[in-house]
Amino acid sequence: MSSLKLNTNLIPVELTTTEGYNEFVKSPLCNDYSTVFPDNDLSHAYVFVNDEIVATVSGEAMSDLLNYSKSGYLANTTSDSSK
Prior knowledge:
This protein has 83 residues and is an alpha+beta fold. Helix content is 25%, strand content 25%. The protein has helices at residues 18-25, 59-71; strands at 13-15, 32-36, 45-49, 52-57, 79-80.
């Protein structure tokens, strides 16, 4: 019998509200995460943990991230709570 690697996140979570995004990135799953904006497409973003997409960001949450980044408030969307 071959060993199977358990992938606990086959489908990324879809985050559409600012409250949902904030709660998600504060969860234990996201101790070390990055929010990445794809080139030439500002309709969505991805939340990466350990080089794996764990969530997509769109809607209100995406609009707020864009507003924060334009205002300079969101200088770095990478978090590492182990520091």
